Hints:
alpha+beta, seven-stranded antiparallel β-sheet, four-stranded antiparallel β-sheet
Amino acid sequence: MSAAAVEAARPIASAIDLARYPLDKLEGPGADTLIGECRRQLAATGSCLLPHFLTDAATATMAAEARDLEPLAHRERHNKSTAYLEAPDESFPESHPKRRLQPTSVGAIAYDLIPRESLIRRLYEWDGLLRFLERALGRGALYRYADPLGGLNVAAMGAGEALLWHFDQTDFVVSLMLQKSVRGGAFEYVPHIRSTEAPNYERVQRLLDGSREEVIELDLEPGTLALFEGRHSIHRVSAIEGPTTRLIALLGYDTKPGTMSSERLKLRRYGRIA
């Protein structure tokens, strides 16, 4: 049996450090403590980090899978957008956050390019992870995206690439850091900088003008599972430095079934709509 076949036959839960994160015993007291800590972190800061979520062996395997797929990543270089991921609103002054354009560049490996037997895809499609995320996020039932391109993807950022300051158009994002860059590539954010009732454009504008007074930097080591509520917390990835590509898996879930990405987003992120 090949090494790939042996890996595919291994129970997917073995990719997780179950001593730290007992996803195999979600009804036990250890899981209750873990769920409580996840919810505490999310309420306080809008983010939750679970370092060493993956075993060292699983991290190495998934990073190797992502490196093999990296040549397939679609890149829209020299792209610009607003912090709201919308077209500039010219009813505002040129310096206003709703109108100001920022450069951004990232490669994306679409779901349909990730082999079914790969460890990273098997983990995403494992119901045990889904059940854990339902409890940790506290948003009721969750469903994997129905989108064949965006359900699971790997973001690849090389030297000179950076992700703009922006708000997400979804309530939460689940990610797995697989490989760090040598320098740069920091995940930075300002928690709860806006709300549904108060857009707080002045605070956003100060940030875009270079203010660092409210910025938090998260240290995402390989093997870390991160939960992030980005609809109201602005965030970015700083410019990559050095020859090592930053690789992070983005796992798509929603509170309703059948979620699909828009055609506009698919074209920009994957270069195709099907």
